[in-house]
């Protein structure tokens, strides 16, 4: 036993000895490591100091290099100045005739020999000195010689100022005793009347000439060996003491030669103190020297001893430029100057370098000391605390492990670790084993197959990426279900199971995360019994479905009721409006007006409820289509421009140039939101102003976002009302609207529509001040949108006279957008002052000024003027000579008026003509002479198309007569002779085919053209086979219409005797093709035409799109292929537009005008549509849809065009009335009412 104890003690002693030995070895290694680390810190600090020194030296060398460049530029400018001075002297000395010097200068020279000249352009003076000998020698030529010298001095001084040379220069005569000092020695004081001031004559002043000449020639002799530079040679001399300033200078000297004879010396001097200040090093540390090519030191920023100067001369000779030379006394570097002048030398002693790096070296040393101290303290205490900390950490680890085991066993959640390769359970607590139905003590067990399948389905294994990148969870049944029940396990209704007496199965929630355990990829899983929660969710889901079904039923009820109410209400209001127009009821007009107002209010209530129901039920579908944003907003502004009426309310439309683009969005819903906001503003504002602002900005993704702002000066709202403003059925306080009642749904609908479009709406209001509504709606760019084009070339200046600064700023942006340069003034006096010295392209004057004021402005500058007024026309109209009036609510009209005024193009007065309103119009060309006075009978049942076709025919010089149907057209034809008949195909009473048959019985030769929106090839061929002479598509451009009429109309000069070529001959085909080609060419060239009153129908003006060639592109195609469109059976009739040829957008004013005409037509036509639906008249519905199609084509509403065509095809393809016809007609009726605001006429 004792031996065992001794052996144990020996082994223990050996172990302790080995531990002590290892400890000492580790201590030595530790100390060596600490020492090496401290050495590295010291070396690193030294490296930082060296880097700082090099950076400082590089900075100084760069500074010196920049100084050398600047100095070289200065020297080069001096030499260039001498060269220009030689040219100046040569010019004036060789000129045949020059101006004499001012009289005061001549008198001063004659009296004293000294005078001062002045150059007003540069506000500088110069001195002229002429000695007695020169004055005597000049004699009678004194005036001429003095004039040449004076002119040369003036030009030389201007050159000196242009070169920005502040040093003094001199022109010194060699043969004659004269000199010119630039600038003057006595300052810049001048006599305002004479431009020169004489100096008091004294001998020293005149003797300066000889002194200065002698000093310069002496330096030239010393440095070059000759007293005058060669011809074209420029020599730098000095340093020497300047007799004028008594300071050391260096001078650039050249000579002016007449032929080969030197006449004058030209010198430019630079004081050495100026050079010393320019080359001084930054911070005053070190010295910078200017050294000549022969190593002679010209100037130094600081005085140096001779030994240092000699050292620097030797060092510069042995060192390449741009390089550092490190010597025992410091660092030397030099930068070359211009060729032949030497170099700029920098000298930094070591002491100066250390002083410059003082704070940097201090920081580096302090940081190094702190790091060394930190290392020493760490080394001192780390070894003592190492074992203690290791023991504590080991103890804490054991305690933590024990606690983890207790927590895992006692937690009420099942915990387990699952191997990811085969989904076997590696370890688990008791609760997890119980929930998973796994017997404890059985070793490794696999998860149930259906749970393993859920793991695989949730996160399948992938080699390329981690299958589980985050914590995930899923719910699965505790026991496997049969396949028949598995599909419905999660949707089983718990309440149904309970009623059946069956206990629902258990459900387990697995929450898992990836981990590593024992070198394997595992999943750490938490298992929880969620059977009760799952059952509750099933019950809540069933309750939600029931609630949603009830909400849908309620919404459908409201929608159906609103529709059922609105159908008879529209008929009632339509008949009420007709009843109000019945003669003899004037005494009841007030009652009828009250009934109309009440009916409109009721219809608005029904519309609001219907829109709200659609939105609430999720049935409000958005239409995303491209549209011109600016046109949409200008139409809105034009529709509200006249709403102020007699009230003291001003309406402002401030539309940004960013709106001038095509975007993708729901134009109808955007217009509905803005219309609602403006309608409320006009409803609640009795005085003050209402402002509509809109612009397009780009979001962070670069997509366009529409931002609108509607502000008013109404009564305002309290914060409480603003907080609940966008809740249903919320209205203002009693009396706030002054009798304007509503459902309180308008703003709610705006908010919901903005949310549907991905935007937002907000409101700010102050009681007694007004309200502001802000709308933000994201849009999308069109697929073919081009990047923003740069600003157009400057087209010239415009003068704008306006009071309102906000309007002025916006107008300036628009003018810049169009390429103009605007000069804006706010007072008449400023405008008059500007016009006295400037000539603009045109004047732009606000409506605050009258025509007399404009005439006064035009008297100053006879240019065109644009008078922008609130009540002005929608297209430019003449208001006297050179003045065009236009409304301020149409940017397109304003732009057209400005361009017309700038180009000086005449615009007829409204009584005789109307402008086309297009940008950059050209004068209207004369119509084809064959169409002049051509009597055209038009059979068309749509009033909008009637107005348009009459307007176009009048523009072409024809005399149109419009009939509403075929029967009326036939009656007119029997009483009046016509040259051509243009008939619609589908009309009530008598359609186009019936009219053709009737006309052929009466006159077999009259040309009859089919006029229809359906222009497919097979339709056109069918019309030709039935006897039509050709066809014209709806809408027809002027080019198409002219080509069709020229092809079938006789020529003017052949009206009496016509030699018609035989049908089918070559001559006939050539004549037809030639006529079509010429007509098509004129159609393309024509960009505008004057509208003439048509017989039988009033033509309000030429449609913008037609007059500008902006209707279907078939017009341009006809111009390029005239002959190909002519056949023996269809003579030169304009071809129908191809499906890809879309009409160009209408101008805003034309869009507004035709839309207003369409709305007036729909007031009577929509009740007729409801009557057709009530009567279930299929043929009448087809005719209505056909007529409406043409109208919507004119106003460019492709959505309604397509719906009307679908409705017409449905009627034509069916033999009886169907439910789909009813639904489509009612849906179209409601959409038209919503789109055109037919229930809110008070707002328009």
Automatic annotation (TrEMBL):
Bias (Low complexity) ranges: 1122-1146
Keyword Metal-binding belongs to the record: no
Sequence positions bearing 4-aspartylphosphate: 984
GO molecular function, one term: phosphorelay sensor kinase activity
Gene3D superfamilies, sorted: 1.10.287.130, 3.40.50.2300, Histidine kinase-like ATPase, C-terminal domain (3.30.565.10), PAS domain (3.30.450.20)
InterPro entries membership: CheY-like_superfamily, HATPase_C_sf, HATPase_dom, His_kinase_dom, HisK_dim/P_dom, HisK_dim/P_sf, HPT_dom_sf, Sig_transdc_His_kin-like_C
EC number(s) on file: 2.7.13.3
Originating species: Burkholderia sp. (strain CCGE1003)
Protein name: Virulence sensor protein BvgS
Residue spans crossing the bilayer: 29-54, 357-379
Residues in Histidine kinase domain copies: 560-781
Keywords: ATP-binding, Cell membrane, Kinase, Membrane, Nucleotide-binding, Phosphoprotein, Signal, Transferase, Transmembrane, Transmembrane helix, Two-component regulatory system, Virulence
Membrane topology summary: Multi-pass membrane protein
SUPFAM superfamilies xrefs: ATPase domain of HSP90 chaperone/DNA topoisomerase II/histidine kinase (SSF55874), CheY-like (SSF52172), Histidine-containing phosphotransfer domain, HPT domain (SSF47226), Homodimeric domain of signal transducing histidine kinase (SSF47384)
Subcellular location per the Swiss-Prot or TrEMBL entry: Cell membrane
Protein purpose: Member of the two-component regulatory system BvgS/BvgA. Phosphorylates BvgA via a four-step phosphorelay in response to environmental signals.
GO CC annotation, single: plasma membrane
Matches recorded under PANTHER family: HYBRID SIGNAL TRANSDUCTION HISTIDINE KINASE J (PTHR45339:SF1)
């Amino acid at each position: 036993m004792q031996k065992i104890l001794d052996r144990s003690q020996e082994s223990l002693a050996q172990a302790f000895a080995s531990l002590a030995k290892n400890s000492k070895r580790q201590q030595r290694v530790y100390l060596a490591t600490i020492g090496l680390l401290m050495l590295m810190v010291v070396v690193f600090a030294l490296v930082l100091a060296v880097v700082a020194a090099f950076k400082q030296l590089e900075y100084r060398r760069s500074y010196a290099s920049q100084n050398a460049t600047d100095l070289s530029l200065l020297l080069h400018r001096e030499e260039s100045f001498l060269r220009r001075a030689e040219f100046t002297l040569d010019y004036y000395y060789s000129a045949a005739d020059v101006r004499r010097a001012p009289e005061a200068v001549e008198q001063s020279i004659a009296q004293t020999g000294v005078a001062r000249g002045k150059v007003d352009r540069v506000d500088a003076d110069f001195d002229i000195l002429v000695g007695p000998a020169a004055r005597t020698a000049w004699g009678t030529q004194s005036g001429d010689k003095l004039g040449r010298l004076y002119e040369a001095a003036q030009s030389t001084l201007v050159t000196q100022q242009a070169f920005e040379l502040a040093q003094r220069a001199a022109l010194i005569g060699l043969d004659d005793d004269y000199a010119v000092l630039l600038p003057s020695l006595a300052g810049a004081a001048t006599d305002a009347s004479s431009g020169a001031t004489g100096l008091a004559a004294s001998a020293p002043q005149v003797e300066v000439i000889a002194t200065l000449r002698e000093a310069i020639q002496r330096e030239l002799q010393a440095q070059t060996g000759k007293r005058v530079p060669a011809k074209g040679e420029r020599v730098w001399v000095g340093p020497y003491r300047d007799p004028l300033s008594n300071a050391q200078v260096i001078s650039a000297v050249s000579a002016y030669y007449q032929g080969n004879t030197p006449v004058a010396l030209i010198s430019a001097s630079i004081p050495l103190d100026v050079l010393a200040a320019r080359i001084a090093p930054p911070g005053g540390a070190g010295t910078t020297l200017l050294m000549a090519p022969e190593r002679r030191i010209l100037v130094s920023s600081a005085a140096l001893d001779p030994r240092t100067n000699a050292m620097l001369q030797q060092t510069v000779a042995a060192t390449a430029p741009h390089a550092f030379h490190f010597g025992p006394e410091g660092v030397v570097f030099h930068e070359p100057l211009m060729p032949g002048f030497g170099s700029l030398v920098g000298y930094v002693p070591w002491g100066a370098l250390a002083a410059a790096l003082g704070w940097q070296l201090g920081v580096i040393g302090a940081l190094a000391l702190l790091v060394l101290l930190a290392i020493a303290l760490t080394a001192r205490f780390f070894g003592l605390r190492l074992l203690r900390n290791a023991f504590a950490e080991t103890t804490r680890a054991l305690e933590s492990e024990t606690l983890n085991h207790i927590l895992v066993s006692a937690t009420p959640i099942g915990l387990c670790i699952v191997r990811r390769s085969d989904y076997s359970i590696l370890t688990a607590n008791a609760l997890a084993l119980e929930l998973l139905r796994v017997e404890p003590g059985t070793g490794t067990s696999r998860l149930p197959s259906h749970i393993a399948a859920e793991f695989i389905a949730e996160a399948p294994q992938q080699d390329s990426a981690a299958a589980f990148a985050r914590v995930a969870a899923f719910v699965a049944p505790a026991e496997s279900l049969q396949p028949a029940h598995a599909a419905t396990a999660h949707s089983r209704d718990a309440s149904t199971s309970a009623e059946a007496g069956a206990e629902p199965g258990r459900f387990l929630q697995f929450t898992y995360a990836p981990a590593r355990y024992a070198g394997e990829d595992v999943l750490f899983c938490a298992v929880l019994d969620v059977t009760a929660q799952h059952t509750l969710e099933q019950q809540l889901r069933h309750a939600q479905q029931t609630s949603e079904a009830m909400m849908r039923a309620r919404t459908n009820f409201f929608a159906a009721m609103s529709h059922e109410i609105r159908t008879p209400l529209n008929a009632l209001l339509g008949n009420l409006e007709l009843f109000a127009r019945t003669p003899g009821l004037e005494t009841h007009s007030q009652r009828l007006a009250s009934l109309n107002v009440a009916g409109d209010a009721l219809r608005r209530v029904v519309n609001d409820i219907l829109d709200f129901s659609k939105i609430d039920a999720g049935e409000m579908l958005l239409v995303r289509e491209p549209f011109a944003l600016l046109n949409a907003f200008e139409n809105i502004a034009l529709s509200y421009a006249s709403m102020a009426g007699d009230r003291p309310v001003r309406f402002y439309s401030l539309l940004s140039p960013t709106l001038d683009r095509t975007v993708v969005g729901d134009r109808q819903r955007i217009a509905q939101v803005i219309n609602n906001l403006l309608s409320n503003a006009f409803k609640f504002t009795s005085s003050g102003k209402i402002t509509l602002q809109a612009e397009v900005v780009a979001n962070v993704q670069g997509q366009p976002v529409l931002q609108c702002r509607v502000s008013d000066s109404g009564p305002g709202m309290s914060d409480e009302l603003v907080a609940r403003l966008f809740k249903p059925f919320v209205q203002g306080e009693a009396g706030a609207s002054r009798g304007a009642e509503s459902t309180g749904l308008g703003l709610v609908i705006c908010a919901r529509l903005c949310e549907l479009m991905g935007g937002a709406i907000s409101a700010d209001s102050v009681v007694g001040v007004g309200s502001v509504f802000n709308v933000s709606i994201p849009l999308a760019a069109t697929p073919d949108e081009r990047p923003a084009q740069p600003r157009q070339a400057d087209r010239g200046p415009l003068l704008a006279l306006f009071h309102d600064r906000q309007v002025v700023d916006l107008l300036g942006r628009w003018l810049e957008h169009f390429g103009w340069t605007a000069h804006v003034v706010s007072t008449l006096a400023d405008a008059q002052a500007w016009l006295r010295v400037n000539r603009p392209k045109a004047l732009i004057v606000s409506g605050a000024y009258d025509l007399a004021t404009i005439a006064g402005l035009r008297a100053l500058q006879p240019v065109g003027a644009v008078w922008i007024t609130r009540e002005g026309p929608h297209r430019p109209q003449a208001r006297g000579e050179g003045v065009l009036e236009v409304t301020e609510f149409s940017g397109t009209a304003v732009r057209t008026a400005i361009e017309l005024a700038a180009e000086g193009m005449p615009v007829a007065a409204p009584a005789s003509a109307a402008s086309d309103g297009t940008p950059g119009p050209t004068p209207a060309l004369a119509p084809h002479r064959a169409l002049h006075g051509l009597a055209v009978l038009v059979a068309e049942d749509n009033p909008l198309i009637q107005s348009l076709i009459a307007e176009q025919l009048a523009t072409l010089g024809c005399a149109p007569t419009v009939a509403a149907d075929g029967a009326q057209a036939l009656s007119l034809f029997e009483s009046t002779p016509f040259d051509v008949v243009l008939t619609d195909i589908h009309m009530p009473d008598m359609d186009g085919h019936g009219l053709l048959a009737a006309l052929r019985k009466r006159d077999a030769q009259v040309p009859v053209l089919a006029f229809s929106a359906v222009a497919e090839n097979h339709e056109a061929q069918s019309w030709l086979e039935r006897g039509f002479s050709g066809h014209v598509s709806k809408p027809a451009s002027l080019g198409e219409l002219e080509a069709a009429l020229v092809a079938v109309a006789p020529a003017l000069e052949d009206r009496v005797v016509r030699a018609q070529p035989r049908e089918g001959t070559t001559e006939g085909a050539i004549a037809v093709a030639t006529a079509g080609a010429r007509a098509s060419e004129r159609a393309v060239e024509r960009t505008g035409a004057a509208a003439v009153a048509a017989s039988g129908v009033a033509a309000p003006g030429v449609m913008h799109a037609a007059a500008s060639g902006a209707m279907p592109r078939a017009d341009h195609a006809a111009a390029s292929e005239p002959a190909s469109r002519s056949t023996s059976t269809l003579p030169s009739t304009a071809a129908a537009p191809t499906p890809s040829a879309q009409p160009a957008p209408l101008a805003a004013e034309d869009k507004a005008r035709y839309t207003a005409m369409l709305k007036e037509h729909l007031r009577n036509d929509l009740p007729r549509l409801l009557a057709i639906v009530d009567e279930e008249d299929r043929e009448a519905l087809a005719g209505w849809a056909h007529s409406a199609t043409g109208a919507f084509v004119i106003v460019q509403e492709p959505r309604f065009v397509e719906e009307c065509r679908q409705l017409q095809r449905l009627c034509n393809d069916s033999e009886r009335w169907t439910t789909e016809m009813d639904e489509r007609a009612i849906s179209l009726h409601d959409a038209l009412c919503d789109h055109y605001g037919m229930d809110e006429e008070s707002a328009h």
